[in-house]
Design goal:
The complex is a heterodimer of chains A (211) and B (468).
Chain A lengths: L5 E4 L1 E4 L6 H4 L19 H4 E3 L4 E2 L15 E4 L11 H8 L4 E4 L4 H8 L4 E4 L2 H11 L8 E4 L4 E4 L2 E4 L4 H9 L3 H6 L2 H14 L12
Parallel strand pairs in A: 2-5, 5-6, 6-7
Antiparallel strand pairs in A: 1-8, 3-4, 8-9, 9-10
Chain B lengths: L4 H9 E4 L4 E5 L2 E5 L3 H10 L10 E4 L19 H15 L2 E3 L9 H7 L8 E4 L13 E4 L2 H10 L1 E5 L2 E8 L8 H12 L7 E6 L1 H5 L2 H9 L8 E3 L4 H7 L8 H11 L12 E6 L6 E3 L7 E3 L13 H14 L14 E4 L7 H14 L8 E4 L4 H9 L2 H8 L2 E2 L20 E4 L14 E4 L2 H10 L9
Parallel strand pairs in B: 3-4, 3-6, 4-5, 6-7, 9-10, 9-12, 10-11, 15-16, 15-18, 16-17, 18-19
Antiparallel strand pairs in B: 1-2, 2-8, 13-14
Helix pairs in contact in B: 2-3, 2-5, 6-8, 12-14, 12-15
Classes of the chains: A alpha/beta (211), B alpha/beta (468).
């Protein structure tokens, strides 16, 4: 997984509440058993007037030159609700996003983001609005810096502090492979199972087999 | 120290505490499907790892497979075949049990896992699918994960989980006839909001829960994810024990005795502390319909579409405006004023035998047929549901009333690019999401109970059965 330490980029506004993963990447845009090939489908329902022909909707910020190269998304409350599809995170990253800032995230999306090096930053709605007004006139010049070491978002002379759980932060800073980390606890898991087979024998479907 | 039901399940599965708020949690069951499970199996293979507990890992074909009679690996969805073929070969290579397209038990993952006794009270179950919370209706601690976490669970039989807080929702009073678990959950989401469960494991309790059938409880817990909750739970009782006895993967003999003894301990202690408490009365609750593009946009079926100018906040006003624009609704109008184009019976929310019986009883007793111009589908949730329904002749009731009778699967609950409802069409649906474009580009979805769906299909506009 890609590590995340600090990032500076153009912030793109999408201040709607409850942006669901069907809107981030519709099911019909997930066309193969793959984590890639998803960027063109990102926000397809809003981004295109005709999704099939890929006719861009000029009113959607992602299509506007002033937000070209945007890598920080500022969204409304409960971002990423709905389907568990990790494709939502893969599509955002493939399209160049490294940070999502919102007042709150849906849990599955949040967990998926952490596991792919996409930083979810939780900031209050007023701070989100202030960040957006900072970049409103010239988003290319007024870039935003997100620093995970310092847990801060900097926009001009304003600095906003954010909180993130210590282990989530470490996972991102170090780009940790969680499976590898858990495998180090293999003996504990085996010991748990051994004791658990006595407590809850009815859970184990491999009765008679050795595990 | 007194514990909640959730606290007990967490403690019983805690392998190791990783930090104050995070633990390594043992996963008893993993279920996969061809949409997102295929990616999880592929990344496991690419990492050179194998499935650690094959006997506890299952896979079904439900999301992409067609539901038309005579179906095979080819699908209406472009590229769908690749998902099916890849999932089949990965599942075989991994040595896990696959409920393949023509398996007699194939069906929607959250319909077959309780039906086959794979999900059990007191077990942890994960699936790369947000509606995994359905199984909380049995008293299983079950939650949806992404494909990367699914691969972690496959490789290690565990997950590293942030511990949620406890939120009890107590339902007082009794449902009126004609009002169902679906109406209860739409009402709950409307009251608590689409983010109202964030960071919490919900426990549903109270008189109305005790009265609900097991299938009704599955419907209720199914939509906990629409509250953005971690999951939902209902304490298992005798109804659950009777429901599970004799199911293919349920324990037998002395193991059954030991299991049921354990399940009886799975209840919140009387003085357990909840971080949040909500009380809702369902006495006199009317059938609910969604009007907008989030399940929180729900109302009594005969209410008026709300006026954005009356919204509590500016953000809500903007959301209501956008939703009403998308849904082509006028503030102050009634949902019954708009003609319907289609009706859908099915999905992990409402495709079980009791749902089909309820709908078929309405059709049989009212003698009504689907209104001209309305496309109506009934998609049983599993092979087991379909066989049982056909044994009772329910398929004749549906087809004679003008419904298509399909093969089991997720079907038109969402649009994968193949079969969908046409742009701009207005659909009444027993499913769980009315998001923009969920059932096809430009499709306008109204969520409703099975009773309201069949009553509306016959009326040609949105209505509740109580009015017919």
């Amino acid at each position: 997984m890609e590590a995340f330490q600090q990032h500076t980029g153009v912030a793109l506004p999408l201040q709607r509440d409850n942006i669901d993963t069907d809107a981030i990447i519709p099911s019909r845009e997930m066309r193969s058993v793959s984590k890639s090939g998803l960027a063109a489908g990102l926000f397809a329902p809003w981004r295109y007037l005709q999704a099939d022909e890929r006719i861009p909707n000029p009113d959607f910020p992602l299509n506007q030159s002033r937000y070209e190269g945007a890598s920080i998304l500022i969204a409304g409350n409960n971002f990423g609700c709905g389907s568990s599809r990790e494709h939502a995170v893969w599509a955002l990253m493939e399209a160049g996003f490294r940070v999502i800032i919102a007042p709150a995230f849906a849990t599955i999306f949040f967990n998926n983001a952490l596991r792919n090096g996409l930083l979810p930053v939780t900031l209050g709605p007023d701070d989100c609005t202030a960040l957006l007004s900072f970049g409103a006139d010239d988003p290319q010049q007024c870039q935003v810096t997100v620093d995970l070491q310092a847990c801060s978002v900097t926009a001009g002379d304003r600095v906003y502090a954010f909180e993130i759980a210590a282990d989530a932060r470490r996972m991102l800073l170090e780009g940790l492979d969680e499976i590898g980390l858990t495998e180090l606890d293999g003996d504990r898991v085996a010991a748990f199972e051994q004791a658990d087979r006595r407590r809850r024998p009815w859970v184990y479907l491999d009765q008679g087999e050795s595990s | 120290m007194p514990e909640t039901l959730f606290d007990k399940l967490w403690r019983e599965h805690e392998v190791r505490r990783l930090s104050d708020s995070r633990s390594l949690i043992y996963v008893d069951r993993i279920f996969l499907h061809e949409r997102t499970g295929s990616v999880a199996l592929a990344s496991l293979e690419q990492g050179g790892r194998r499935v650690r507990q094959r006997a506890h890992t299952f896979c079904t074909m439900d999301h992409i497979v067609d539901t038309l009679p005579g179906r095979g690996d080819d699908t209406l969805m472009p590229g769908g075949r690749d998902f099916i073929v890849t999932t089949r070969s990965s599942a075989r290579a991994a040595g896990i049990q696959l409920f393949d397209i023509n398996d007699r038990d194939q069906g929607i993952v959250h319909v077959i896992s309780p039906e086959l006794g794979i999900a059990l009270p007191g077990t942890t179950l994960v699936c790369p699918d947000s509606h995994t919370c359905t199984l909380g209706g049995l008293g299983a601690l079950a939650w949806g994960v992404g494909s990367t976490e699914a691969a972690h669970a496959l490789a290690t039989s565990t997950l590293r989980v942030q511990r949620p807080q406890n939120h009890r929702v107590t339902f007082q009073g009794q449902l009126s006839p004609g009002t169902t678990a679906k109406d209860m959950i739409l009402f709950t989401i409307r009251e608590l909001s689409a983010a109202g469960g964030a960071g919490h494991a919900l426990e549903f309790s109270g008189e109305a829960i005790r009265e609900l059938s097991v299938e009704g409880r599955l419907t209720l817990c199914n939509m906990a994810t629409e509250l953005s909750a971690f999951t939902a739970l209902i304490a298992p009782d005798d109804k659950v024990i009777r429901y599970l006895e004799g199911r293919p993967f349920a324990p037998r003999g002395s193991l059954w005795q030991s299991a049921t003894a354990h399940w009886q301990t799975l209840v919140s202690d009387p003085d357990a502390r909840f971080d949040a408490e909500t009380r809702l009365s369902v006495a006199g609750l009317k059938p609910q319909l969604s009007w907008g593009t989030s399940p929180e946009h729900s109302m009594d079926w005969d209410d008026s579409v709300p006026d954005p100018e009356q919204a509590p906040t500016g953000a809500t006003r903007d959301a209501w405006r956008r939703a009403q624009d998308y849904m082509d609704l006028r503030p102050g109008s009634r949902l019954g004023d708009y003609p319907l184009d289609a009706a859908f019976m099915g999905s992990c929310t409402n495709s079980r035998l009791s749902d089909l019986r309820l709908a078929a009883d309405f059709l049989a007793q009212s003698g009504q047929r689907v209104a001209p111009g309305v496309k109506a589908l009934c998609v049983p949730g599993s092979g087991g549901v379909k066989r049982a329904a056909e044994a009772e002749g329910l398929h004749h009731v549906f087809t004679e009333a003008g419904f298509e009778w399909r093969e089991p699967g997720c079907s038109l609950c969402f649009y994968a690019g193949g079969e969908g409802f046409g742009p701009g069409s207005r659909v009444v649906s027993t499913t769980n999401r009315n998001f923009e474009g969920r059932q096809g580009p430009g499709v306008r979805t109204h969520l409703a109970s099975p009773l309201s769906v069949v009553a509306s299909a016959c009326a040609g506009h949105l209505v509740a059965a109580e009015a017919v």
